[in-house]
C-alpha cells in the first residue's frame, strides 16, 4: 500500500511536477510556512564562534525558501537577511573550476572521496594520500581556489564573485566585517594551505589562495539568493531567472554527487539516510539542498549542532524532503 502510494506520488510528480497523490496541487507556500513554524522554537545548538563575528549574529534568525527549477520562489521567515555563505560556497567554486578544466581535473588534482573527518582536519590531509580528498572540505576547497587560472589574486576573486553572482542571477558582495574577522583568525586554513603545498597539492601561492578563499567564504547571500544558486543546479546549470548557462550541463551531476558524498560535514551519512538529497552546509548557518530537475530548498539559522550543521535549517529541509517524498532513492 505504502509502495503504491509512493509510486503514485512519483508518477504524478514526473507527469505534472505539481500534484500530490490525492490530486491536489502542491502548496509550496504552505510547505515553507509550516516548516518555519514547526522548527522556529527549537533552541538547540550554538552559533559558530571560531570566526569571532559569527558569534554575534542573531541566533533567532530563521528563513526557509523553495525555488523551483523554473525560478518560482516561496519563502517564509528571515529570507532577506544576508549571511556569509561560508562552506556553502565550495560546490560553486568546484563548478567554476570544472567549467574551466573539466571534471577529471577535480578527480586528479583534489579527489572526490569523503573524509569521515571534520571539515578542517589536518589529520585527514596526513592520512589520505590524495591529501585534499574532496572539494567540499577546507583542504579541497582551498585547492579549488588555487586551481582557477588567474593573473592575480584580484582576478582570482573576481572570477569567483562573478561566477557566484551568475549562479544567483544578481550581483553579490563580500560582507566586509566577516572577511576581516575571519582573516584575522584563519591560522588553521593557512596551515592547511602550506601543508597542501608541501605535498604538491596546492596550485597557487598559499597566502594569496587562503586570502581569496576567505573572501569567498565571506560573500553575503540571503535565503532567496542562495535558493536561486541552488535552483541553477536543479535546472541543469541554467539560471532560471536570467536564462544564462552558468555551468556546463554535463557537469551538474558531478557537482551534486560530491555534495551528496561530502556536503554535510561528518553527518553526511545520516543526512543521506534521512533526507536523501545532495546538499551543502556552512558554519554561517545556511544549507542548500538540490532536487535535480525540480527545485532547491534553502534554510538558514545560525545555531549549529556538534557537527557544524544548522539545527533548524537541517530540520526544515529534512521535513520538506519527507513531506514531498523527495529522497533521490525513492
Ligand atoms: N570559512 C570557513 C572556514 O574555512 C568555512 C567553514 C564552513 O562553513 O564549513 O573555516
Summarize the structure.
It is built from 14 helices and 8 strands. The protein has 330 residues and is of the alpha+beta class. The strands form 2 sheets. The chain has a 5-stranded antiparallel sheet, with helices on both faces.
Molecular structure report:
It is a single chain. This protein has helices spanning about 1-15, 30-40, 90-100, 105-110, 125, 140-145, 155-170, 175-185, 185-200, 205-215, 225-235, 250-260, 270-275, 310-325; strands at about 65-70, 75, 85, 175, 220, 280, 285-290, 295-300. The chain is an alpha+beta fold and about 325 residues long. It has a single domain (about 30-325), classed as Beta-lactamase (3-Layer(aba) Sandwich), CATH 3.40.710. Strands 2-1-8-7-6 form a 5-stranded antiparallel sheet, with helices on both faces. A 3-stranded antiparallel sheet has the order 3-5-4. A hairpin with a 4-residue loop joins strand 1 and strand 2. The longest helix is centred in the middle third of the chain and has 16 residues, at about 155-170. The chain is globular, with a radius of gyration of 19 Å. The chain starts with a helix and ends in a 6-residue tail after the last helix. Residues about 10-15 have low confidence and may be disordered. Bound molecules: glutamic acid. Glutamic acid binds near residues 87, 189, 217 and 283.
Total strand segments? 8
Q: Based on helices, strands and strand pairing, what is the structural class?
A: alpha+beta
Instruction: State the CATH architecture.
Output: 3-Layer(aba) Sandwich
How many separate domains? 1
Count the helices. How many? 14
The CATH superfamily bears the name DD-peptidase/beta-lactamase superfamily
Please state the oligomeric state of the protein chains shown. Answer: single chain
Named once each, the bound ligands are:
glutamic acid
First and last CA, distance: 15 Å
Mean pLDDT: 94
What is the general shape? Answer: globular
Could you tell me the strand content as a percent range?
5-15%
